[in-house]
């Protein structure tokens, strides 16, 4: 969805865009909501699809397209071959969305990456990984944070009491909240245990879990079932509120007192940024790209992943230092509104194209 959002923003800024995607992809289905020219292309093999790349090159040539924006690392081999058929004339910009993982200094990865003119890393954390684990020319790497429409979050849509009324939650309780798919790596189970631990420490806190298990993923569904069973066994059903995900996410942010990111490691937690823009205190795991987003503890509290005592200490600090917590949240909102604005992202991307419109996403 970040791809479609960026395409929509650039289109509104006057870019000529053509979206190339597969017919059954979610991007293709959702693109119908926007006035962006879309072409269906067949699935390609991940590696060495020479015939598919040649056909794609011919399509780009027919449409007079010279610039291409790539978002999925599984497309990089295909795009490298496409660029070969253009004799290097095709300009390629790649926006990274996942961590590099294992070292990719082998000859095949080096070859594929050589076809990239600009590599966009959303964080310095990711840029440093690319520099350490690939042979990509460091001069090609640009740090451009993924943006969002800040005004959707800065101005509350609901009063807290109104949001909680809609969610059927007591307006007077101290409410922690976690948003996203219900999955073992997202940490909902840990937070349920944390609510139990906090209550045992005479800290009257409750938890809002907004999300659903991933469709057709048995592990995710089994985790969800086990989570609900745990609530019943430990009499926590009145302390932990599970609500289905809604596109009206302001309902979630306007209802809670503290936002929690409990994931084992998020490459780039957009929900953390949304919470910052909503001027909420944030408690998040000290892993992945999150520490950089929170400026290493200046804009939110960081705790050791899966460390119950450490997490409870952070919750206690917020309760005991509400003025300092509020100042931190206010500063986080100001920084996020400047650094993670969608206009800021678009302006930096435009510089990569020397302010010339890109014809392809």
If you had to describe this structure to a student in words, what would you say it looks like?
With 361 residues, the chain is α/β, with parallel strands linked by helices. It has helices spanning 2-12, 26-31, 50-62, 76-85, 107-114, 124-133, 151-154, 160-167, 188-200, 218-233, 250-255, 270-277, 290-293, 308-320, 322-339, 342-352; strands spanning 18-21, 37-40, 67-70, 91-95, 118-121, 141-143, 174-179, 205-210, 240-243, 258-261, 282-285, 301-303. It has 16 helices and twelve strands. It has a six-stranded parallel beta sheet, sandwiched between helices. The chain has a four-stranded parallel beta sheet with strand order 3-4-5-6. It has a two-stranded parallel sheet with strand order 1-2. Helices cover 44% and strands 14% of the residues. It starts with a helix and ends in a 9-residue tail after the last helix. The relative contact order is 0.13. The longest helix has 18 residues, at 322-339. The protein has two domains: 2-147 and 341-352, Rossmann fold; 151-339, 3-Layer(aba) Sandwich (Rossmann fold). Helix 3 packs across helix 4 (76-85), helix 4 (76-85) crosses helix 5 and helix 12 packs across helix 15 (322-339). It is elongated and about 70 Å long.
Described by strand count, sense and barrel closure, the largest sheet is: 6 strands, parallel
Average pLDDT level: 93
Stated plainly, the CATH topology of the largest domain is called Rossmann fold
At the fourth level of CATH, the homologous superfamily of the largest domain is Glycogen Phosphorylase B
**Between the first and last Cα atoms, what is the distance in angstroms?**
13 Å
The number of domains is 2
CATH architecture of the largest domain: 3-Layer(aba) Sandwich
**What would the principal axes of the Cα set say about the shape?**
elongated
Q: Helical percent range?
A: 40-55%
Low-confidence stretches: 355-361
The number of strands is 12
What is the overall number of helices? Answer: 16
Structural class: alpha/beta
Strand content is 5-15%
């Amino acid at each position: 969805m970040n791809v479609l959002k960026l395409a929509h923003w650039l289109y509104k800024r006057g870019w000529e865009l053509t979206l190339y995607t597969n017919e059954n992809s979610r991007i293709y289905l959702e693109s119908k909501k926007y006035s962006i020219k879309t072409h269906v292309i067949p699935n390609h093999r991940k590696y060495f699809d020479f015939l598919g790349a040649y056909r794609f090159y011919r399509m780009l040539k027919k449409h007079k397209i010279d610039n291409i924006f790539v978002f999925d690392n599984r497309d990089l081999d295909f795009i490298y071959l496409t660029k070969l058929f253009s004799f290097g004339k095709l300009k390629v910009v790649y926006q990274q969305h996942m961590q590099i993982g294992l070292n990719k200094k082998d000859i095949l990865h080096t070859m594929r990456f050589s076809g990239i003119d600009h590599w966009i890393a959303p964080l310095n954390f990711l840029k440093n990984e690319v520099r350490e684990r690939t042979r990509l020319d460091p001069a090609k790497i640009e740090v451009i944070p993924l943006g969002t429409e800040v005004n959707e979050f800065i101005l509350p849509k609901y009063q807290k009491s109104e949001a909680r009324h809609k969610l059927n939650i007591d307006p007077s309780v101290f409410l922690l909240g976690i948003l996203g798919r219900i999955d073992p790596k997202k940490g909902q189970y840990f937070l349920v245990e944390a609510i139990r631990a906090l209550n045992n420490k005479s800290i009257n806190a409750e938890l809002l879990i907004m999300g659903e298990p991933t469709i057709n993923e048995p592990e995710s569904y089994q985790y969800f079932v086990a989570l609900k069973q745990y609530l019943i066994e430990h009499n926590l059903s009145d302390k932990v509120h599970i609500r289905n995900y809604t596109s009206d996410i302001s309902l979630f942010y306007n209802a809670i007192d503290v936002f929690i990111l409990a994931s084992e490691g998020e490459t780039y937690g957009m929900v953390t940024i949304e919470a910052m823009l909503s001027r909420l205190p944030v408690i998040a795991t000290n892993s992945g790209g999150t520490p950089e987003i929170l400026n290493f503890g200046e804009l939110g509290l960081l705790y050791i992943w899966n460390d119950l005592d450490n997490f409870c200490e952070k919750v206690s600090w917020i309760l005991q230092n509400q003025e300092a917590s509020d100042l931190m949240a206010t500063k986080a909102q100001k920084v996020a509104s400047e650094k993670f604005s969608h206009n800021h992202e678009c302006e930096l991307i435009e510089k990569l194209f020397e302010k010339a419109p890109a014809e392809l996403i």
